[in-house]
Amino acid sequence: MKAYVKQLNNKGNNEEGIKEIIELWNENAMETAECELDENDRMAVQDQLEQFIQSKYGTVFVVMNEFQHIVAYAIASIKKDLVSDMLYGQIDEVYVTEKYRRKKVAQNLVDHLITWLNQEEITAIHVYVDLDNKLALEFWEKSGFDREFFVLSNN
C-alpha cells in the first residue's frame, strides 16, 4: 500500500481533487455526526477548499494512493487573535479513510501541516477536538498537543 503526501496549490487544476475531498468530508460527517452533506454544505466546503488553496493563510494537504485517489486530507489556516494581535495556526480538519488508518498517515499529514505553519513563522497551533472522541484526543496528545481549555456549548 503506497501513498504520498501532496500539497494542493493554485498552480494546477484542483477540480477533481476538491471533488474527492468533498466525498471524504461527507464520509467524515457520516462517521462523526451521522449525517450527510447536503448540496449547500458541499458548495460551502468547495468554497472553503478553494479559498485555502489560493490564500497564503490556508493550506490543503492530501494523501494520494498508488491509483492517484485521495485517501486522506488535512487542512490548516493562519488566524489572528483579536486580543493579542498575534498570528496562530489552526488545524481545521484531518481525515483518513478507514483502510489507511493506523498506518501513520494522519501523523504524516500533521507533520506536513506543522512544517507549513513553521515556515510561515507560526509556532502556536490550535486544534479543536470533541471530548467524546477519545481516539482523537489520544492522537493529538501523542502528537505533542496539550489540553488547554474547554469550550462549552448548549447544543
From TrEMBL:
Q: Which InterPro entries match?
A: Acyl_CoA_acyltransferase, GNAT_dom
In this protein, which residues make up the domain named N-acetyltransferase?
19-155
Domain of life of the native organism = Bacteria
Q: Name one Pfam family in it.
A: Acetyltransf_1
Signal peptide span? none
Please give the name of this protein: GNAT family N-acetyltransferase
Species, as recorded: Bacillus bruguierae
